[in-house]
Amino acid sequence: MKLPVITKENFFLHLGQHERPWQKDYLAMYSSQFQGITMDPDLMVLPVDDHLVHRGDGVFDVMRCVNGKIYLREAHLNRLERSARAISLGLPPEYVRVRDLVNALVTAGGEKDCLVRIVISRGPGSFGANPFDCPSSQIYINVVRFRGLDAQHYKKGITLVTSRIPIKRSFFANIKSCNYLPNVLMKMEAVQAGCQYSVGLDEDGYLAEGSIENIGVVTADGMLEFPETDRTLAGITAKRVSELAEKLVEEKRVRGVRFTRITPHQAYRAKEIFLTGTSINILPVVQYDGRPVGRGCPGPVCLRLSDLLWQDMTHNTEMLSETGVA
After folding, report:
1. Alpha-carbon distance 16 to 268, whole Å?
2. CB-hemisphere CA count at 13 Å for 294?
């Protein structure tokens, strides 16, 4: 079998031969490997021997830019740093400028509404598993155009199914690592089941989290509950939603807010269920494991929380960081 030989001279010729329509939303990337930024998706590459690629050895976080401002920036960066410490992954020298890098990259991307993905990798060094083969960790930052879900998902609600995929155990559950295989299989399972989302159970059979979402439940007796975070990733948006929900307690829409253990059978009897996350805000669940949730339509708590979260995202200057996007 004769294969073409790719060289430095003909690399870009081969690269441009194939259309990649999924790249149309890739706005900008920074790579510490190349010490610069690019707006060309074809150049958004990293070394194949980076342990991020062949071992999943890295951590990441995703932030939302709303109307040119980064939402909950510090909370996301703190979680990223905690994840790195948990796996003894040193931050690269460039990380001290991460806030400036993010602002510069969003500005270069030119979109006021986007997602910012920050990855800290073990770095290139070998194809083995030994992290000490890697001379230095690396940081990669991507800015991607934000495309929200279809409005009908919020108007009519979505379907949810219990996943059979084992979730990560508590130590790994609290690390936002780049090894997302269980999450990928959960999403695959949901789609194959004809549902839009799935939720995993911990080893004791309690609700944990979705593939990339946290879950909230309004119980039959009016409590707003979230799964405890000892077996799930502590969601930044979920935490903020739980804080905003205290307003609902004042308005007597819910009796209280708490993090606790929730069984699927308790969720079956819920008045309302919703998913929440950086890119979905508050997403009402109207069917869970084939059973209608409440009246089978988005409920008042979900709708009110959606309003409160959006107000917070667009007006809470304490949580926002200005970028240079006009």
Report:
1. 52
2. 23
Alpha-carbon distance of 72 to 320, in angstroms, equals 6
Residue 257, H or E segment: strand 256-260
Contact 273, 160 (CB under 8 A): yes
Per annotation, catalytic residue among 8, 112, 155, 176: 176
Q: Given a cut of 60, is residue 180 above it in pLDDT? A: yes
Going by their DSSP bridges, the two strands 158-162 and 197-201 should be labelled as: parallel
* pLDDT per residue as tens digits for the range 182-220: 999 999 999 999 999 999 999 999 999 999 999 999 999
CB of 108 within 8 A of CB of 55?
no
The verdict on whether 8 is a catalytic residue reads no
Domains and CATH numbers, the chain: 11-145 (3.30.470.10), 151-315 (3.20.10.10)
Q: Is the pTM of this model over 0.85?
A: yes
